[in-house]
Design a protein that fits this description.
single chain, Leucine-rich repeat, LRR (right-handed beta-alpha superhelix), eleven-stranded parallel sheet, Leucine-rich repeat-containing protein
């Protein structure tokens, strides 16, 4: 059963939600006025999809971790006022898609790497200044979206993201292309627009799957040797 309360003008979750804790598989509470969620959220153990985007939530209850067995598809927490994520979130080790963007998070939990099922992670405009070392354990990740943060580097453990296809890092503070990317065999698209990069490393030509590299709004010269070499190989390079 899907309970859909999209744009319903709600300030709290309806009582009906808790009457369907055994058969509610998708709960949509997006675009409302929610400021908090009760611990009872952890009772909705049949959920595979939970959409809480576009509200005014300042936090998420620790009990969200009790949804680990069922919450396998989508969790939307974007565009709220969440300042920190509970460790319970990291218990969702079967979740495939997580969007926590447009929140003043500052950091991700140190245990983020325990979310082994993640295929796509979106954390754009989340005031991130660093990523936890454990992120390198997310070996199933195919897409990571981190634009609009304050990242000046990536942890070396990123080399463990062997399934990564898409990496979006536009509008951060990176002074160089992170060295850890050179070992990612499936990486197809890298977006580095609006960083502080002055030159490209030659090892970019060694990435066997690279199809598109976007380094606009950096100080990279269009005539730089790696740019020309990549284009010769058929890679689209935007400078």
């Amino acid at each position: 059963m899907c309970l859909n309360y999209w744009k319903a003008g709600l300030s709290s979750a309806p009582d009906e939600v808790w009457r369907h804790e055994d058969d509610c598989t998708a709960l949509i509470l997006a675009d409302n006025h929610l400021t908090e969620l009760p611990a009872a959220l952890g009772r909705l153990r049949s959920l595979h999809t939970l959409d809480l985007g576009h509200n005014a939530l300042t936090g998420i209850p620790e009990e969200i971790g009790e949804l680990a067995a069922g919450l396998t598809r989508y969790l939307y927490l974007h565009d709220n006022r969440i300042t920190g994520l509970p460790d319970g979130l990291c218990a969702l080790d079967r979740l495939g898609y997580l969007n926590i963007g447009e929140n003043p998070l500052g950091r991700l939990p140190e245990r983020t790497g325990e979310m082994a099922g993640l295929v796509e992670l979106r954390a754009q405009h989340a005031a991130l200044v660093s990523l936890p070392v454990s992120v390198g354990k997310l070996g199933s990740l195919r897409e990571v979206w981190l634009g609009g943060n304050m990242l000046a580097e990536l942890p070396d453990t990123v080399e463990g993201l062997r399934s990564l296809r898409v990496l979006e890092l536009r509008n951060n503070a990176l002074p160089r292309v992170p060295e850890a990317l050179r070992t990612l065999p499936l990486l197809r698209r890298i977006d580095l627009r609006g960083n502080r990069i002055g030159e490209l490393p030659s090892w970019l030509t060694e990435l066997p799957s690279l199809e598109k590299l976007d380094v606009r709004w950096n100080a990279v010269a269009d005539s730089a040797e790696p740019v020309l070499a990549l284009r010769e190989m058929g890679c689209v390079v935007l400078t």
